[in-house]
Design brief:
alpha+beta; 45% helix; 10% strand
Length: 235
């Protein structure tokens, strides 16, 4: 099935983009309000996890900041209380989330982007702007790494569009399910689930087909002495 002109490959790729968002300890109590704000701005929340990081885990998560003067403060802060990790999906998700968060420095966010989430939920302290309430992945590679940090078994792939789901059903499921369900309706077995499972197993379209074994691959005929004929015995 071809993609419509209004649904180009580039547009589909942007729609399927994902990123990791973290609600930091200072904004943990406002997590519900922040999640509602996220949904109201067109994001889908695909996964959510509440966790408290150890210093070692926080250091691994922010290993890209290693060596910078604020690294110890960042690790201590991120392991100092519970956080909420979210996997977001939207069109141009990474950049859209970073825009919604606002600048990393709370003073800048409050001065120039007062409606941003960091301006609303971040806190300015004497230690600097480490309490900016939220985190977002910087790019595709970091999004993949950070998502797997919190959700190691999650498959980070494109979100299927409705036409793709319909196309898959028509191409791969209907040719097998429709005859099976029709036969089930005619048979009316006492245990329909068991009957249907057995039918699908016997009519599995993905069952491997065994090709004829080539003559040279067959087991060689063993040498043997033929049984004597009746005529040879008499003679």
């Amino acid at each position: 099935m071809s993609i419509a002109s209004s649904d180009s490959e580039a547009e589909y790729h942007c729609y399927s983009e994902r990123t990791l968002a973290i609600i930091k300890p200072e904004a943990y109590e406002n997590a519900e309000d922040i999640e509602n704000h996220i949904r109201a701005n067109g994001f889908s929340i695909l996964a959510k996890r509440q966790v408290r990081l150890t210093p070692e885990q926080a250091a691994e998560l922010y290993k890209g900041h290693y060596g910078r003067h604020h690294f110890p403060h960042l690790v201590a802060h991120m392991s100092g209380g519970p956080i909420v990790a979210l996997v977001l999906a939207a069109r141009n998700c990474i950049q859209k989330w970073r825009t919604l968060m606002g600048p990393a420095r709370v003073v800048e966010a409050q001065a120039y982007w007062p409606d941003s989430l960091r301006a609303c939920y971040g806190r300015r302290t004497k230690y600097g702007d480490y309490f900016n309430a939220l985190h977002g992945s910087e790019n595709h590679a970091e999004a993949l790494r950070e998502i797997h940090f919190f959700f190691p078994t999650m498959i980070v792939g494109p979100l299927l569009r409705r036409w793709q789901i319909s196309d898959y059903i028509q191409k791969n499921l209907s040719p097998t399910l429709v005859p099976a369900l029709s036969a089930l309706a005619q048979e009316r077995p006492s245990e329909p689930i068991v009957w249907l499972a057995d039918y699908l197993n016997r009519h599995n379209p993905n069952e491997p087909q065994w090709a004829p074994i080539a003559r040279e691959q067959r087991e060689e005929e063993k040498c043997h002495t033929p049984l004597p004929s009746q005529e040879s015995i008499l003679n």
